[in-house]
Amino acid sequence: MYLEFFKEHGHKIMPSQSLVPVNDPTLLWINSGVATMKKYFDGKVVPENPRMTSSQKSIRTNDIENVGKTARHHTMFEMLGNFSVGDYFKNEVIPWAWELLTSDKWFGFDPERLYITYYPKDHDAYNKWREVGVAKDHLIPDEDNFWDIGQGPSGPDTEIFYDRGQEFNNLADDDPENYPGGENERYLEIWNIVFSQFNHTPENTYEPLPHKNIDTGMGLERVVSIFENAPTNFETDLFMPLIKQTEDFSAGKKYGANKADDIQFKIIADHIRTITFAIGDGALPSNMGRGYVIRRLLRRAVVAGKKLGIDKPFLAKMVPTVGKIMQDYYPEVLKNADYISSVIKSEEDRFSATLNGGLNLLNNVIEQAKKDGTNEIDGRTAFKLYDTYGFPIELTKEYATDEGLTVDQKGFEAAMTEQQNRARNARDMDNGMGVQTDLWTEFKDPSEYVGYTDLTVNDAKVIGLAHDGKQADIAQPGDDDVEVIFDKTPFYAEMGGQVADTGDIIDNYGNTVGRVVDVQHAPNQQNLHRVELKSPLKKGARYKLVVDRLRHLKIEKNHTATHLLDQALRNVLGGHTQQAGSLVEEHYLRFDFNHFGQVTAKDLAAVEKMVNEQIFKEIPVKTIETDIDSAKEMGAIALFSDKYGDKVRVVKIGDYNTEFCGGDHVKNTNELGLFKIISEGGVGAGIRRIEAVTSSDAYDFLQKRNAMLEEVASDLKVAQIKEVPHQVASLQDELKQANKQVEALQAKIAAQQANSVFDNVEETKGGKLIAAEVKVAGMGQLRQLADSWRAKKLSDVLVLGTANDGKANLLVAVSDDKVKDGLKAGDLIKAIAKAINGGGGGRPNLAQAGGKKPEGIQDALKLAKEYLNK
């Protein structure tokens, strides 16, 4: 209803974007509708339609502890929004808001139940609300009604509240928070309309924006609670199926019967939605960033299940329920339910395996703290819960708070600095926008890209020119940031992972005027050339543009190979794999994709073979321009970070692969010649990366490998490369036999040394001591000597040291009788290991240490004697 309303008012419905931000390092998650539109609001891109509307799935992680304890807190929610980029403003958006909320055709809310807060100095907004019929006593000035998140667009806002009635009032009539805008349950905020009209500058001033904007946000879950007259968001159709399913899993628990249990039901319902969508969008559990958030939410939900008596893994079974609730708008959740469930089950099984031990320890600690009257869980215990049992510190603190205890945060941080840093990384980063710039925003003259068919343009006119951040009629060598727009160009602008073309600008006399070093898109999507000048360049003049042809053709090959690789990964690893980024360069391609677990050598070989099979089949590569709906009917795959308009290009590689793509491609797969994967590995939580080469670069790679094999063959003195594996196997067998002989000889030498070492027994206050430096192969033979010593009962204490390859090893053995007397090998090894700049430990009767100072072994032996004489 919301989207259709604004569609009728000329807005373009924008699809809900992935929760994982694309090309935006300032955000951990997409956390609002406007987060996906920052490029429009800061002027980097001019939208196709300045009026847009969306229902955007969002995640906010800065208030996880309150989820389940309040009526409205969620980690994932949907934000309804309508946006204007330099088009309409207060005079339009306020009447539309009132119409949507009160018209019987739309929401049909009773106007008497609606209250509006506004910025006291914003008289225009106040007057407009009065014009549409809002009573004076329903308009409330509030100094907080100014939207400002730091540098970038900012301005006053107006918030709309729904009066749910006195029966929802949780405060006394004279409570200072008992008003629309206060902290109460009666007046529910449903919509915030921001009037972006200032630039918050780096100098902390507020300057008028070149273009005024509208940015609004309405919480879908809140509005649903009004339509369904639900006490909280959780009693709506969005959550109740999940709560009912949790009841079935629990030990007879029922929602609504007990307040403490209700919190756990809500935690599970909220968190499984978030986890499901986050994993579906490519994020995976880990110990950092987004992965840490997923892991923390999953563990919090598992613990909540424990409190409801659920002792077996259950969260993975709830994924289809999430999918069914959301399938009208998000059908992909059900489509990928098996994959999402498998990820959740793996993580849940791992946590459940240690959870019971952790909970037992925590409960015992809580009970003991209460007995001792300390009312605090010490930092070491909190660290052990994290390190051994997987409890995030926040979960321990939350558990402790429920029991009226605190946690020694400083002690925890001292024991776990590195992990705590990871935890801090799992917070949303600054989500401010850049300061709005209008250098190219108003420049709308068309520029045609002809590089799909022509790599040279003989008569290109300069229609836009700037340098040093300003428009200009002429640019000179030495000017900074020279940017040029031509009426037509063969230079590809970087997009979709494909790097920009480079090449030359040539005048009518054949002289090179400048070098095109980069090409990006201007806000209105013209190709914007970054140029290094050798001679002056003039606006209105005409030049010859020449793309570096060989470089361009290599990039084309690698781009087509990227499509072949993307499809091969889906075919071999499964349809859940999604592109998570790509780079198409001249000499190689890089492809990042989501995948849970390792990629085996067998799978990698199958992927490489499949790509090469398509090359050898000599498949024609066709490009089709069509509308977006027709492209989807063709089964075209939308790639990771591309932006698609109403008209799209579809690249079709026979029946093998069909994808949306605005990049350059070969005419036939045979042009690639050969495809070779040169590396594969993990680059983040659930993100794998493949680097590969094609054509001459693949040939060069294989030639280098062949040269290495020939060198090995020469060293092994075999006539042909094919004999290398056999020769290597023979050498390995010989090496094994030689090692056995060496070990036998070393054992014999050690035994001979033992006879002389064990003869030297010294008396100390702590008992009889044998201490010596011996020449053996390492710690293994020291332990053999200790076994012989123990069997013969030659003394109370044995201390041995040996040096090998610049390193030192120490061993301490203590007889069983002395262990009973309180002498521990671990204590002794710690006391003497400092002499070799090392450390160690072990059991009471046997301990060992390693260090980097072999010359300190004799000092260590002296320290042992001193230790026993204390």
TrEMBL record:
Keyword Nucleotide-binding on entry: yes
Subcellular location: Cytoplasm
Enzyme Commission designation: 6.1.1.7
Binding site for Zn(2+): 559, 563, 661, 665
Molecular-function GO terms, alphabetical: alanine-tRNA ligase activity; aminoacyl-tRNA deacylase activity; ATP binding; catalytic activity, acting on a protein; transferase activity; tRNA binding; zinc ion binding
Catalyzed reactions: tRNA(Ala) + L-alanine + ATP = L-alanyl-tRNA(Ala) + AMP + diphosphate
InterPro entries attached to this UniProt entry: aa-tRNA-synth_II/BPL/LPL, Ala-tRNA-lgiase_IIc, Ala-tRNA-ligase_IIc_anticod-bd, Ala-tRNA-synth_IIc_core, Ala-tRNA-synth_IIc_N, Ala-tRNA_ligase, Ala_tRNA_ligase_euk/bac, DHHA1_dom
Domain of life the protein comes from: Bacteria
Stretches assigned to the Alanyl-transfer RNA synthetases family profile domain: 1-704
Key words, A-Z: Aminoacyl-tRNA synthetase, ATP-binding, Coiled coil, Cytoplasm, Ligase, Metal-binding, Nucleotide-binding, Protein biosynthesis, RNA-binding, tRNA-binding, Zinc
Family matches, as Pfam families: DHHA1 (PF02272), tRNA-synt_2c (PF01411), tRNA_SAD (PF07973)
Tagged with keyword Hydrolase: no
Cofactor(s) in the UniProt record: Zn(2+)
GO cellular component, one term: cytosol
Matches recorded under Gene3D superfamilies: 2.40.30.130, 3.10.310.40, 3.30.54.20, 6.10.250.550, Bira Bifunctional Protein, Domain 2, Threonyl-trna Synthetase, Chain A, domain 2
Function: Catalyzes the attachment of alanine to tRNA(Ala) in a two-step reaction: alanine is first activated by ATP to form Ala-AMP and then transferred to the acceptor end of tRNA(Ala). Also edits incorrectly charged Ser-tRNA(Ala) and Gly-tRNA(Ala) via its editing domain.
Similarity comment text for this entry: Belongs to the class-II aminoacyl-tRNA synthetase family.
Domain observations: Consists of three domains; the N-terminal catalytic domain, the editing domain and the C-terminal C-Ala domain. The editing domain removes incorrectly charged amino acids, while the C-Ala domain, along with tRNA(Ala), serves as a bridge to cooperatively bring together the editing and aminoacylation centers thus stimulating deacylation of misacylated tRNAs.
HAMAP family in alphabetical order: Ala_tRNA_synth_B
This protein's name: Alanine--tRNA ligase
High-level lineage: Bacteria, Bacillati, Bacillota, Bacilli, Lactobacillales
